[in-house]
Amino acid sequence: MIQFLLNQELRSEHALDPNLTVLNYLREHVGKPGTKEGCASGDCGACTVVVGELHTDPQGVEHIRYRSLNSCLTFVSSLHGKQLISVEDLKHQGQLHSVQQAMVECHGSQCGFCTPGFVMSLFALQKNSDAPDSQKAHEALAGNLCRCTGYRPILAAAEQACCNKPADQFDNRQAETIARLKAIAPTQTGELNSGDKRCLVPLTVADLADLYDAYPQARLLAGGTDLALEVTQFHRTLPVMIYVGNIEEMKRIEDFDDRLEIGAATALSDCYTALHHEYPDFGDLLHRFASLQIRNQGTLGGNIGNASPIGDSPPLLIALGAQIVLCKGDVRRTLALEDYFIDYRVTARQDSEFIEKIIVPKGHALFRAYKVSKRLDDDISAVCAAFNLKIDNGVISDARVAFGGMAATPKRAKHCEAVLVGATWNAATVEKACAALAEDFTPLSDFRASKEYRLLSARNLLRKYFIELQTPHIETRVTAYV
């Protein structure tokens, strides 16, 4: 059984189909059709809902953290122990919520189909903002598309909603909601079981290891932003899933003198502060990683585990010399991330083995990253590049150069690195290294970019890296376009 709050209503579910998304649960099971389906792939934001969960800040104060999610990519099992809020829950005692009122007064709704999603993103923005902030507003709304092109009044509504925001029913009932969430906090493995399909929800790494050993055919579910597409886009059935999002051990970020250790189930939005502090380019790239809704769900371990050749984090992590800790039963092994990827969607992971955490070394001052895509926000890379050189007295003593989108896997450019190591760091060396990239990669052409464009972009990004190290005042990183 799993338990969660639907606004303030306690829901206990056991026999639901584990392949059921929150979107369809709201629309078909509890009669709340305000949440819309636009794309069923997490691109349009029409299905946005907000999930609240208990959170303790660094000062030890408990509160409810509200986050926007794409309900079309969220399976119901991930709600265990949390609070689900949909657009119907905002109106209170006959009065519109302040974010809804702002949309009305600023004329933010046109055809109206996308409006519920915008309202829920605004609600989450308001809950996480102390004052109007245009940058945060753009970030919060980047995952919501309006086909009527009505963004200006919606941004005006965001400013109004976050300016002198009044207390609402959620603020007034926060203490009560915290108490109710504590009362339903999971204490043992939860389960949804429809007879032919099941999803298990363990609470510890040890329980996960035991379950995965018992069900090696199970699919691991973290954020679900990739896995859920098999259900919503390809109409496949997932007979057994194991949801790892309630395992606190796998959601920790530990900061050591020489490294960061990031739990594999840590949401990308939670990784931002630590990674941006150590490597600003990594943080900047995370801001361009899909939408805020996706970053609130998607995990760093998931972005590695799905072995996509166009995943944004693996090239950066490979260039930094990151390692992953793999767990099977009570046995752990540490593997260099670059050795995890074998071929297209093929990895070195053994049966019943899972990524427990990612180890990111510190201290690489010359690390830079670049993403080439057709749009600034919410787009997949055509080419993602990461460069990490060590230069002593003008001579390159070590080089790690990695790319995504250039091969069947995220991959180091070994021939390029061989040209760089031991050479003088100058324009002539860079040109030789650029030429060597043709020996490292034979990229494919697809709808994102041609093979010729990809190779040219890879070379130009290396030149860009050289120019920026020579003129560090230039701040144009992570902003390239096709």
Automatic annotation (TrEMBL):
UniProt key word Iron: yes
Pfam families, per database record: CO_deh_flav_C, FAD_binding_5, Fer2, Fer2_2
Record carries keyword Transcription regulation: no
Position of the signal peptide: none
Keywords: FAD, Flavoprotein, Iron, Metal-binding, Oxidoreductase
PANTHER family for the chain: XANTHINE DEHYDROGENASE
Identification of the protein by name: Xanthine dehydrogenase small subunit
